[in-house]
Write a structure and sequence with these properties.
- The protein has 13 helices and 2 strands; from the N terminus they run ααααααααααββααα.
- The chain has 311 residues and is mainly alpha-helical.
- The longest helix has 29 residues.
- It binds 3-hydroxybutanoyl-coenzyme A.
- The site of 3-hydroxybutanoyl-coenzyme A has 28 residues, from α2, α6, α7 and α9.
């Protein structure tokens, strides 16, 4: 069958809502876009462990420390899950990690901001994982089978991440004046960067048209951002927090919150590698990878030995 016919069949399969599986024919551009998106998603999970890891030794009590440890371990699992799903497309772990370490691959912009107070742990769970959840619930419908199934599993844990973050915020808001002020100050720093997590809008979202046609993405960046805002503003108000956007206002006709234009110069600067924490994040990942070489060598030696025993 020629390429044109194969492409026709492929699109028809997607339009019928069927999943594309690893051994199915797929256009190179489909495979390439998914390897890019899935590996960057995995990088985001692994790098996302760093801002929270910064607070394990300083959690205010044992319960918070245990929850934070459990959450960070979840993120590691999400990363490994997504690397394995990306490997079904022919990418290798080494290639993906090399791309992260040498700056060719991205990870979510949001993890290039520092976590300065304990309230930031609340904002990461409530806002960052909340935004990730809006995006990942949509991605459960992605056309690529292994990615869709990974999302179903990850979303279950993401709900816990989001809830524990909101509980931290609610506890601070119900605490002393200083604690409430700490939560407001953290919200002032995290609100806009959390909104840019959904990616640029319009033509700047260079992958969206094709990704939507092939149902890699089910909704565009702006629709997901708006969904997140509509869901999160009432949660802030319920805690007596003020969203740091003077132009935020409910539009009854359109049933959505209007909000200020985002700072896209800052966004593109951060994803170019010039955010407050980019260098530290990539260095931490490279150091961890280098220090982990002996573990990988031991595992390979053990696997070799087992193979020769079985042979
Ligand atoms: N951070 C870094 N880069 C971003 C970005 C962000 N928030 N949003 C967009 N970009 C980059 C894209 O990667 C692309 O650059 P590239 O061609 O070099 O990869 C460029 O900006 C243009 O953006 P597009 O909108 O065209 O890119 P996508 O179609 O890939 O859409 C996305 C961006 C919505 C983030 C999409 O990639 C996506 O849905 N990815 C899967 C979900 C994901 O990665 N979430 C990250 C957070 S995970 C997380 O927070 C887990 C938490 O539990 C720790």
């Amino acid at each position: 069958m020629n390429e044109e016919k194969l492409l026709e069949e492929f699109q028809a399969k997607i339009d019928r809502g069927e999943k594309i599986e690893p051994n199915d024919w797929m256009p190179d551009a489909y495979r390439k876009n998914l390897i890019r998106m899935m590996s960057q998603h995995a990088h985001s999970e692994i790098v996302g462990m760093l801002p929270e890891g910064n607070w394990i030794t300083r959690a205010p009590n044992l319960r918070r420390k245990m929850i934070l440890l459990a959450k960070i371990q979840d993120e590691a699992g999400h990363g490994l899950y997504l690397y394995s799903a990306a490997e079904t497309l022919g990418a290798t772990r080494e290639e993906m990690l090399d791309a992260l370490h040498d700056g060719r691959a991205k990870y979510s912009s949001i993890f290039n901001y520092p976590t300065l107070t304990w309230a930031d742990m609340g904002m990461v769970g409530w806002l960052v994982d909340g935004a990730a959840m809006v995006n990942q619930v949509s991605l459960m419908g992605t056309s690529y089978g292994p990615y869709s199934r990974a999302m179903v599993r990850i979303c279950k844990e993401e709900a816990f991440h989001n809830r524990q973050g909101y509980e931290i915020v609610a506890t601070l808001c119900a605490g002393t004046e200083e604690q409430k002020a700490m939560a407001q100050e953290a919200l002032n720093r995290w609100w806009f960067p959390a909104l840019t997590m959904f990616g640029p809008k319009g033509a700047d979202s260079v992958h969206s048209d094709q990704a939507l046609k092939w149902q890699i993405k089910r909704e565009d960046n702006e629709s997901l951002r708006q969904k997140f805002i509509n869901m999160t503003v009432p949660q802030a108000e319920a805690r007596g927090l003020v969203i740091p956007d003077p132009n935020l206002k409910w539009n009854e006709d359109e049933k959505r919150y209007e909000y200020s234009e985002l700072n896209w110069d800052e966004f593109f600067n951060v994803i170019k590698g010039n955010g407050p924490m980019n260098k530290e994040r990539v260095k931490a990942r490279k150091d961890a990878h280098d220090k982990g070489l002996w573990v990988r060598q031991a595992a390979e030696a053990y696997a070799e030995k087992r193979k020769s025993k079985v042979a």
